[in-house]
Amino acid sequence: MRATLLHGAGDIRVSTVPDPTLRDPTDALVRVTHSCICGSDLWPYKSAPEAAEGRRIGHEFLGVVEAVGSEVAKIAPGDRVIAPFMYSDGTCTHCRNGWPTSCIAGGFWGGDDKFGRLVDGGQGEYVRAPLADGTLVRVPQETGPELAPALLALSDVMGTGHHAAVMARVRPGATVAVVGDGAVGLCGVLAAHRLGAARIIALSPHDDRWRLAEQFGATDRVEVRDSAEAAAQVRDLTAGIGVDSALECVGSRQALETAIAVARPGGAIGYVGAPQDLVELRASVPLRAMFERNLTLSGGLAPARAYLPDLLPDVLAGSLDPGPVFDLTLPLASAADGYRAMAERTAVKVLLTP
Ligand SMILES: [Zn+2]
């Protein structure tokens, strides 16, 4: 089969690799029909050391189940499935507590499983999906091709934006600020709107992304994303009070500081941007100011699998549509062009078809 391989910084190739097969009785073999490139794929894309053999990449995909192992009970050949961005068994303590991203038996697509065997990346033609019953979510009804982008967004960005809103305790009537206008920030706007926020201030410097934010429910725009100036503008928009809920959807020191600065006393910050500089970020949590203003800081790696049963029915009903975050669709063979477009910010998020 063909799969996307990262050979080093800026070096993406689509090559022929061995066809995956069932290895464990809990595996499913999935034919990928849609995958996509994540903002978090850009970090290895920009910084990975040279690797002659290349390494698999991609962790968001939709597909059709081709075969299942003897112990798979909930998924059958022919099922259309959504794969969340990590695999998990759904049965361990952490999964049952709602944190499948911390699953004891789980892991990431494109790396080795706990026995050192490759688990395919999502940006390829086929994937061996471990722990299929816990990991994959069946799409329970026929849907047209126009719904595929929205379903694909549930594998990561929509669940992650929703996590930011949940962690920031967005309630009906809330005033919300969303720091970041990438795909996750845009999904954060959509999630806050879905949870009933009355006012959503998007910190969005890019005109095209602001238009999408507005379509997703944003009511106010601040044209600078993360700085003291952005925080001052949010405070001006809220009569100096600040927002009930601040969603940090970038992962930088400045974005976190901005989110903390714009929260009102007693407010909450939900952070879901993958931290890009841990040393800087540790130094950037202003604990004294947070103590004085009784701020809650909550968030982390989104348990996308745990949110799927809540979000999927809304997508199927047509009341939730994160699909427009995909603004470029390319064939898998052109994955390198997709990475370039996202790195150069000419595309928000790229969808790949086989
Ligand atoms: Zn688990």
Structural commentary:
The protein is an alpha/beta fold. The protein has two domains: 2-156 and 303-353, Alpha-Beta Complex (Quinone Oxidoreductase, Chain A, domain 1), CATH 3.90.180; 157-299, 3-Layer(aba) Sandwich (Rossmann fold). It has 13 helices and 18 strands. The longest helix has 14 residues, at 304-317. The radius of gyration is 20 Å and the shape is globular.
How are the secondary structure elements laid out?
Layout: E1 2-8, E2 11-16, E3 28-36, H1 42-47, E4 55-56, E5 61-68, E6 80-83, E7 86-87, H2 93-96, E8 107-108, E9 126-129, H3 132-135, E10 137-138, H4 148-153, H5 157-167, E11 175-179, H6 183-194, E12 199-203, H7 207-215, E13 220-222, H8 228-237, E14 243-248, H9 253-262, E15 263-271, H10 278-284, H11 287-292, E16 296-299, H12 304-317, E17 328-331, H13 335-343, E18 350-353
Parallel strand pairs: 11-12, 11-14, 12-13, 14-15, 15-16, 17-18
Antiparallel strand pairs: 1-2, 1-4, 3-5, 3-9, 3-18, 5-6, 6-10, 7-8
Helix pairs in contact: 5-6, 5-12, 8-9
Bound molecules: zinc ion.
